[in-house]
Amino acid sequence: MICKVLVVDDASFVRMMIRQVLIRLGHTDILEAKNGFEAIELYKANTPTLTILDITMPELDGLSALMEILSFDPTAKVIMCSAVAQGNVVRKALALGAIDFIAKPFRPSELGKMITNYLSSN
Q1: Where is 7: in which H helix or E strand?
Q2: Phi first, then psi: what are they for 7, rounded to 5°?
Q3: What are φ and ψ of residue 53, in 5° steps?
Q4: Would you say 32 and 15 are in contact if contact means Cβ atoms under 8 Å apart?
Q5: I want to staple 51 with a disulfide (CB 3.0 to 4.6 A). Which of 74, 78, 112, 114 is the partner?
């Protein structure tokens, strides 16, 4: 199943890496944002099937964006992807409603399996 995916990270090289994983999986409808404000705006305008969201970003962090996205769409599927992978941060992201968490640096194959798992359950 080909779905719309929103990739949110302030680092363009990370967005590019995630985009490459998605393209290899056959997904070409990929939206990109570089901060939480852009993520919320793009989510509300496009309602993607899956969002991959960094935590530490300028202007509005990923946890705040996650809360706003889920208040707009409680069924949103959001995978948090961050170098900040301490247990308390992961637990907070999951408690707020993220469906999963992947730590940076990640193996593309690991992210690919995670994406496939959540998109196939759509």
Answers
A1: strand 4-8
A2: -110, 125
A3: -125, 125
A4: yes
A5: 78
State both tokens at 62.
Answer: 């990923």
Whether residue 111 contacts residue 21, with contact meaning beta carbons closer than 8 Å, is answered with yes
Question: From CA 102, how far away is CA 90, in angstroms rounded?
Answer: 9
Do 56 and 82 form a contact (C-beta atoms < 8 A)?
yes
Contact status, residue 55 vs residue 80, Cβ threshold 8 Å = yes
- pLDDT tens column, 48-98: 999 999 999 999 999 999 999 999 999 999 999 988 767 788 899 999 999
Residue 82, pLDDT score: 87
pTM above 0.90, yes or no: yes
4-120 CATH pick, 3.20.20.140, 3.50.50.60, 3.40.50.1100, 3.40.50.2300 = 3.40.50.2300
Partners of residue 30 on adjacent β-strands: 5
Place of tokens 């852009």: 38
